[in-house]
Design a protein that fits this description.
This protein is an alpha+beta fold. It has eight helices and four strands, in the order E-H-H-H-H-E-H-H-E-H-H-E. It has a four-stranded antiparallel sheet with strand order 2-1-4-3, sandwiched between helices. The chain is globular.
Amino acid sequence: MSTQLTIYSVGVEDVELWIRQPPMGTAEESRRRAAIVDARGEAEGPRTMVEAVDEVFGDRPKHPDAGDVYARVLQDLIEYGESIRFDFGPLRLGTQYLQEASAEFEGAGVPRELTPMGFMYDSPFTLPEPANVPVIGHVRAERMPGMREAYRAVVDRVEAAELVKVLLDAVDETLDFNDFARGFPEGALPPRDLVTFYG
């Protein structure tokens, strides 16, 4: 079974606000889409997707062994919120490919924390996560300039250049937004980070 790395340019502060104070219709639409997933029998574990939606948006206690449903709810929220999506995959070799690419990037001079294996398990959210996938990752806004510099330096020197190009596209989009956000006339907007989902 193939997997994919999905990258979003999105503000973590915004996501946390959407959870605490959902814009009108957000939780209802998320619940509607969750019910479709439940009807297909895709979610595993002691929580349905609809239950997970209610627990995420209601800030209710979370089941520690709920599988991937909380990650799915967060991805749905980010997907349909104010975010920009970048995809890399499907990955036939999955984690093995990302491990090998990360080792190659690090060998070429990319700091370990900015390689896929360095950031794709670093969730910015406190929700329970499964031992399997999807796993939520994170690169903070302040790391974006260094990430762009590091990946630009290796894009022509690594075999996994297509992955580098996707990451650079995501970083460039995020930095462009953050430049705009800092100069917003009515006051600075929250910066965007990269949030990733692997699965």
